[in-house]
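Lab notebook, bench 4. We co-purified these components, and the gel suggests they stay together. Before we commit to crystallization screens, I want a quick structural picture of the whole thing.
Request: model the full complex, all chains together.
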Amino acid sequence: MPDSGNSSWDRRSALRAALGLAAAGGLAACGGNNGRGGGGSGSGTSLVQYFHAYGEAGTEQAIKRYAKAYEDANVSTQWITGSNFESKLFASLLTDKAPDVFEFHPQIQLVKSGQVADLTELIDPVKDDFNPADIQSHTVDGKIYGVRMIDDPQFFFYRKSLFDKAGVGIPRTLDELVAAAAELTTDKVKGIYLGNTLHSIVNPLIWASGAETLDENNEIAYHTDGVVGGFRTLRTLFTSGDLLLDAPTDFWDPSALNQGLTAIQWCGMWAMPQMQQALGDDLGIFPFPKVTDAGRQTVYNGGWSMFVNAKGKNVEAAKEYVKWLWIDRKEYQEDWALSYGFHIPPRTSLAESADKLKSGLPAEGVRLFNEFGHFDNIGWTQAMITALEDVLANCVRKGGDPEAELGKADGKVNRELDKLFG
Amino acid sequence: MPTTTTRQVSAPARSRRGLRARSTLAFWLFTGPFLIGLLIFVYVPILWSAWLSFFEARFTVTPSDFVGFENYRTMLTDEDFMGSLVTFTVFAVIIVPTTWALSLALALAVNRLRFMRAFFRSVFFLPTAVSYVAASLIWKMSIFNGVRFGLANTVLGWFGADGTAWLASPDPPWYWLVIVTVRLWLQAGFYMILFLAALQNIPPELYEAAAIDGARPGWQTFRYITLPQLRATSTAVILLLLVAAYQAFDEFFNLLSKTTWGRPPLVELYYKALGENQDYGAGSAGALILTLLICLVTLLQGRIMGFGRAEGSK
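Here is the predicted assembly.
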């Protein structure tokens, strides 16, 4: 082996390795799917609408069916899978591929940056037929910026048979909930499931502690002793071994309860039909219990709303479409709210005529929604939501000090509040 | 390598110019498409990102507000970003040696096989074709889920151990086990192929000579003949592994959600640049800092391990 040959071999082997890696990378990257279905052949304007992937069977087909029935524009649907709908939405809104119409929650930064169009004139004629809270949560300075499609109360679902067997009653306080979870835990079943990241109970915890996210002057109202104590209690639950962790499905999916992995699960009313099908009468619901004596039982009235991208190319056509589907076509609104999962229609006339919600457990869900429900505050934006989710991660999952973590969050939230309200 | 040296004595004087023109055309024909792709998908974004990093670029990629080195100062004093570099270091310290050792061991094992060698080579290489996202989901939902019937917990159950939540709790940090094993499974086969090629390039005369000189087969020949002969490949593999570790994103992003820990630089930058703030200026500054770091480490590694240097000139 002569020396001169070695150096060229060195370089060549490195080059070969690099090319091989590039080729392998290309191979592994195959199978991309951009989700853009072939555009139909309809004439006139085309609109793009964004939806997050609903879990219930038939929802995607339903949305596409409504869109197809619309004659004045060619509406294509992007059904966004994955757990980060908001970041995909925010990123796409910056580009010229932005959707004309999208579903989201009311958040004021979208209004302040001129991202969402004023829909007051669409809603005004039927304003009285909407749940007043759904109008209020979409209103900034007297203008309404989104049309509520569905209201989704979130509360605890539980297995009555397991409660009876363990001799446990419905918990009225967070401490009782933790104690009940301990009683209910066996070597097969965990006591309670709050989702893999627990983030969906941040707001309920704040409300159940007697606090608010922001007060009426848009200042921080979540940093109270009650909330600090609530986070401490949750930490004891997290480390107790009674909390189901790393389940194959997240809180929004009924599988953990249906498959007998847990006795109690935080979930939304959307999953009620699937749970009833799997468990029959062995199912009950209760609100998030009080955290402190000054607190209150709490239900989170989440939901989804339609917004029009004010910076889109076809704002007027998009408004027309939203009016057609989510104001005029009540049969579609009813189908959307009640045929797949259970959602409460924000239109009073629809909610009152919805037979499926009139008796049994669904009626109980509606009662909890009305009696204990808290709606989104439009001033509570994604950056603030993330700040509080970090608090939860750092002090419940990681064991940090809630007081210090909330202090850190205050800084982030105040920066955001300064930007929004000056 | 005598074959390569003899080939260079060639090219008679006849029509040298025509030949050269044709080979120039062939050069551009072969490299052109690749170079255009490189330009559009690599160099333009790098330059654009460098430009963005000097601007206040929130919610826009065509900013006008020049801020100098402000974004760099933000990133270098940002606890989360600096923490992500620590996370990366921990990750690299674990993943680089383990992948190196496992892929070398696989190559040695496959190289010794007398039959079904092609079969095992393919079997070990196949995971390379699986996407990181799909593999992460398998790891998360079936192997390392926290319920009693997860694969890992089932195995632990045989020994009477309690089920473990592998990903939810950072204390103890079991999530590293999940992250490291998924990447090992995905990439060991590819590096095995590199080692296999290098192993087959070691001239058998060396082993024969060593045997005559009394070297015992096994550890002694491996230590004094195989390993030194693999030096060039080892260096390349370690370099590639390090760069791949810097680029880690998919498995961290998919396995750890809503955490404040276990975020390598690219995940941190993703949340920074594409999160609710859409801060492309700070994000680009972070990306450039990262690029500089990769260059620096690569150069240093080249110095230390003699990457691309002739064996004899040492």
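Residues 1-9, 18-42 of chain A have pLDDT under 50 and may be disordered. Worth comparing against the SEC data before the next meeting. Chain A touches chain B through 56 residues (CB under 8 Å).
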